Amino acid sequence: MSTDSTVATAPVSLTLGAVNELKKLIDQQEISADFGLRVGVEGGGCSGMSYILGFDQKKDGDTEYTIQGIRLFMNKAHGLYLAGMEIDFKNGLEARGFTFNNPNASSTCGCGSSFSA
Questions:
Q1: Beta strand pairing status for 62-67 and 96-101?
Q2: How far is 9 from 34, CA to CA, in rounded Å?
Q3: Residue 63: what are its φ and ψ, rounded to 5°?
Q4: Cβ(104)–Cβ(85) under 8 Å?
Q5: In DSSP terms, which residues pair with 52 in a beta bridge?
Q6: Kind of pairing, strands 4-5 and 62-67?
Q7: CA 24 to each of CA 80, 89, 101, 103: distance values in angstroms, whole numbers, following the listed order
């Protein structure tokens, strides 16, 4: 199985709010150390592409990064669409959940979970 592990800077960043929420989820759901946060894209959604964000095991073609103690897995091909993206967690009256600030998105849908590049 050919997978890369790198100490290079991750193409995405996590805000303090996102890091805190992810660590809370890892503890609450008792996520195994074999798992990391998968960040990526897939076809679909109202704007053409949707974000992938969830806990998963490392797969062939993934690059592994560590951000503030959180393992992050990303397929190398997805870096083109996600480079420079910031993942945040909102916990307010107007918005609750993970949000994506992607400088590569030429347009996004109203809910912010899909985009076109």
A1: unpaired
A2: 21
A3: -110, 140
A4: yes
A5: 40
A6: parallel
A7: 29, 12, 22, 27
Dihedral, 22, 26, 27, 32 alpha carbons, nearest 10: -160
Q: pLDDT (tens digit, 9 = 90+) per residue, 19-31?
A: 999 999 999 999 9
Which residues are bridge partners to 43 per DSSP?
Answer: 49
Q: Name the phi and psi angles at 4, rounded to 5.
A: -100, 145
The tens digit of pLDDT for each residue in 67-79 reads: 999 999 999 988 8
Report the predicted TM-score, pTM, of the whole model to 2 decimal places. Answer: 0.79
How far is residue 105's CA from residue 86's CA, in Å, rounded to a whole number? 12
Per-residue burial over 23-32, b if 16 or more Cβ lie within 10 Å, else e, is: eeebeeeebe
